[in-house]
DNA sequence: CAACATTATGACACCGGTGTCAGATGGAGG
DNA sequence: CCTCCATCTGACACCGGTGTCATAATGTTG
């Protein structure tokens, strides 16, 4: 069981190791006969190039880093899953790096990460994808990166997002169509651009239907279940109580549902509740939550694929795209009587 | 902004690069004065050794792989979090590798992973940690590994688990103490050793209290929410209906709760429900689920730490440990009337 | 103080690939 | 048949560290 290196392949095939390397990397200027011969030896010896040696010679690691700071486990795993798919397709690996946006020394932390791990690129997920400071740092350091679900679309950044504003608009419109006019809204974390986008969609729908925005119905949250619980308390204590609540994500919506149920309110008869994200919890509870599904895996997959392309052959034109979100209606919303 | 390599450090400090290497690795046989001098240059030049070059020279990657195939996102993120903590502490990185135990070619898949990524070790989480086939393969290939939540304790394997049997025993006893005797049980996935352990705990508690085990009350699940929903239907259709349901994890318990609520059963007045794992959903729903909390992060952290120790200095005595699980009571269980 | 053991240091090859460049080979054109 | 150019191919240095071993410097002993 000896190690198969490029040297043994070269010797066995009767060519120089440089020629083997050429075949390996699909470089031109290898005669078809030689290429064939070497490829055959690859199979015979079951040769697999050592990525570490390759990395050293090319100053590459074939590793993409994924930054996140998100309370939603399901969001994180969806992001990972999309990123992994793209990585594996191109023989890259994924390094996960949870860290805090508001941490004392984010830039230092990332700098450390980059120099110790020699990452070839970074995928930034919210809220990092909206951090100007971080992005400027990466630009200055000449590190390739891709933004997921970011509001930034600046011609220099690969950026894939979904249409939060439109999603929130449709969901609000759905509630309005059910006869609701007093619709409370729970905002997300202020560091995420999704927070503002979703709120804007809500406002636009109200405006469109000539329903005045009531500031009193807008609560501050931060996407965590806990913050949803706090907002839920404030909202359910209001008089008059709104007939519907639109929370900026499903966890906060679940918190509203929990409190409402505790207080013997019937959902959706007495109170309609809607969320955002289509997290697993949205269908694990009763009644199931009406929500907006986003293509998180798809977004991340595209972002990482573009990132890898950018790494292998830097391009002038950078890829940007907005994917569609879609409304999913479940039992938690119903006609206002 | 030139690159700082071991050569530049050596030159700047006026020593050979081998000496720099010695200081870097805390090797003996360097005079205190020289060591001091080199360390000072490290700081001055902000030198960070290139892990790739190091890896090539030592035939190491400083990367640990983490295998999982688990429907629970929260479990996965907890595992990752524990593993990352241990990795970062020792300057390792974590590569995540979701794959299917029942996949057509698991061994090939892992073989591929190992040769292309040159991992220094693997952490196996359930159900991989119970796969004899995989473990034998790793032994034969001389790959270091650590088992998380495995039933295997064979003196050659690092193995950290928590006491599932005891946890299930305590939870069942809790239900018995509340006056329940007809306690349905939903099993987990047959590939996980936890499934049998939890079932054994349930049986032991019944036996201890002279309650005969009723086969009709035992349903097959597989830890997924969906399987829980199927079992829930079977259980709630039974006549007479049991007064309590103990599901082998919280997702399945949540499915029981959802169906019970849909059917207008009051929980816990008409039906007590308990789960296992203390997943986030257990406290995100109403009523909150009585469950068993396991130290998942702690298990994984310990496993990875031991794994890294094993890698750096192979030891005769291998580390094994059983951590305690603990009962968490919430609103979903109450006295049987 | 000679003889030897111990500690400190550096020269050099090596890990397994890739980049550069010079030289070999072969076909087209005059 | 010779020149010229395009296509192949390999020798060799190099990426940034580590291992081996010889040698220099220092310490210990009789």
Automatic annotation (TrEMBL), chains A, B:
It holds the Pfam family Peripla_BP_3. Keywords: DNA-binding, Transcription, Transcription regulation. The keyword Transport does not apply. Residues 4-58 form the HTH lacI-type domain. The keyword DNA-binding applies. Gene3D superfamilies: 3.40.50.2300, lambda repressor-like DNA-binding domains (1.10.260.40). SMART domains: HTH_LACI (SM00354). One of its GO terms (molecular function) is transcription cis-regulatory region binding. Transmembrane segments: none annotated. Residues 2-48 form the HTH cro/C1-type domain. Signal peptide: none annotated. This is Transcriptional regulator. It comes from Pseudoalteromonas rubra.
């Amino acid at each position: 069981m000896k190690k198969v290196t490029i040297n043994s392949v070269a010797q066995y095939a009767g060519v120089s190791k440089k020629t083997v390397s050429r075949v390996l990397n699909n470089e031109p200027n290898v005669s078809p006969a030689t290429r064939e011969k070497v490829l055959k030896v690859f199979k015979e010896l079951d040769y697999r190039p050592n990525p570490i040696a390759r990395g050293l010679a090319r100053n590459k690691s074939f590793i993409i880093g994924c930054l996140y700071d998100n309370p939603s486990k399901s969001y994180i795993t969806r992001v990972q899953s999309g990123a992994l798919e793209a990585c594996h397709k191109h023989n890259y690996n994924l390094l996960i790096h949870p860290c805090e946006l508001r941490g004392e020394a984010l830039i230092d932390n990332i700098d450390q990460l980059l120099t110790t791990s020699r990452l070839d690129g970074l995928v930034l997920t919210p809220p990092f994808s909206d951090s100007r400071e971080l992005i400027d740092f990466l630009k200055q350091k000449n590190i390739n990166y891709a933004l997921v679900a970011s509001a930034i679309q600046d011609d220099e950044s690969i950026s894939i997002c979904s249409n939060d504003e439109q999603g929130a608009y449709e969901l609000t419109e759905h509630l309005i169509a059910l006869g609701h006019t007093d619709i409370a809204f729970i905002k997300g974390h202020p560091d995420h651009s999704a927070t503002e986008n979703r709120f804007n969609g809500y406002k636009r729908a109200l405006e469109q239907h000539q329903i005045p925005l009531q500031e009193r119905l807008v609560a501050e949250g931060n996407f965590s279940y806990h913050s949803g619980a706090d907002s839920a308390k404030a909202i359910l204590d209001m008089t008059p109580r709104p007939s519907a609540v639109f929370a900026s994500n499903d966890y906060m919506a679940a918190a509203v549902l929990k409190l409402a149920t505790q207080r013997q309110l019937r959902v959706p008869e007495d109170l309609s509740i809607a969320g955002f994200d289509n997290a697993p919890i949205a269908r694990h509870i009763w009644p199931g939550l009406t929500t907006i599904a986003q293509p998180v895996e798809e977004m991340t997959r595209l972002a990482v694929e573009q990132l890898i392309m950018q790494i292998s052959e830097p391009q002038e034109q950078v890829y940007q795209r907005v994917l569609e979100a879609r409304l999913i209606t479940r039992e938690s919303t119903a006609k206002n009587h």
